[in-house]
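Record format v2
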Amino acid sequence: MDNYDILILGGGPGGYVAAIKGAQLGLKIALIEKDAIGGVCLNEGCIPTKTLLKSAKVYRLMKHSKDYGISVDSASIKPNWDVILQRKSSVVKRLTSGVQGLLKKNGVTVFQGYGEVINNTTVKVNSETITAKNIVLATGASPIIPPIPGLKEGIENQFVYSSKTLLNYPKIPNSLTIIGGGVIGIEFATLFSSFGTKVTILERLEQILMPIDDDIRNAYLKLLAKESIEIITKANVTKINEASVTYELNGQSKNIDSEIVLLSVGMKPNIDSFKQLNLSMNKQGIQVNEQMQTSIPNVYAIGDITGKMMLAHAASAEGIVAVETIAGKKSKFSFDSVPSAVYGFPEIAWIGLTEKEVKEKKTDYKVSQFPLLANGRSLAEGDTDGFVKIIVNPKNGEILGAHILAANATDLLAETVLARDSEATIADIANSIHLHPSVSEAVMEAAIGALLKPIHM
Ligand code: NAD
């Protein structure tokens, strides 16, 4: 029986980052993982889907190669789904073995098995009992399965898939119905529609992607329509049949046939392995303070189980805060500093408040938008769909929100995240010399526009 400084339950981006950081801080760390190291993100989420999206991107580009002066026989451009899936698996393997190597090199003891928390210092895994001064819970989340009649049978009969099981569907489906127009639903919609699948999204609320800024959503909806992705909002799914989905729209019952269905209506925290602890919970998940401490001071909760922002990068940052706190350092986590994204063609990335949220706060604000059509590099790339929108406090130049719709929005957003975190003002971005030609100049131009007027518009 070994006594560890920290025992981490769950080896996803929350748990494994916490483990490495804890070891780097000189603490004795144990990590328990029941499946593969890397969690949902590396094995069944973020990384495999981005790998598949890259194949879709190549396919889309090749189909438009004539626009760039490259002639190819269009009949010869075909996706090979088996090879696409093989590439996905090899990227995942490379990354997860890299993480395993890092854990080993940093001296983290990894236990393979289901960990069951007995009390705030003891966890049972397989037949072993492990004790630690502190426990960090990082057990992630699982798809919500709503009580829709026929859903259980639909899953059993391989008509309904989750984002995890769909990754191994053996072919590109002819048609796909997606229940839930959130981040996962949209990502799969753009992925498969790129390969020619007829995609229909059924969303319960009045809009898809509720958290994003309205201007971004309106522009994005036009692009999804161009892709022939059908979006049916205010749709109440009432039944899953053998090969169709029944839903209610404006009091009328309708049916939609498709080869398969993706269910992506959100995730719920995995809390079974530590229910013994009776931790305080809120509506979203395990309640924590800014140091990620639960209602039991030596037990920390990070990542999806806190339910607030189910994002890998938030989980990793929370993990670092938890272990730094345990190591006696001053550290705290702020949800205001977490950027969000929707992957697809183009991407959406944002940080801070939407214009609607700023309005609700009744604070003074100014909006500046810069279209990619006015950016030279975007024109050269042939990626002119989108814009940069920055919302500032005109009194002090504080960046209240930054919203980007662009081919590489997730990379472009970074400077606004840094600016907000370091309390830089919009003038600091406007006055920084950005490489020419680069898409990042659109961020600079939006910043200049928030102060005066953009140069190139
Ligand atoms: P989500 O919460 O983003 O979206 C779920 C959507 O389903 C919502 O729009 C909701 O209104 C709708 N919905 C709920 N019940 C429904 C029903 N019965 N019928 C029709 N629509 C219904 O959830 P998700 O897309 O499943 O993603 C799960 C979590 O994983 C999210 O918290 C997300 O942040 C995270 N995630 C993030 C990324 C990313 O950052 N790009 C990628 C994947 C997953």
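The longest strand covers residues 128-137.
The chain is about 35% helix and 25% strand.
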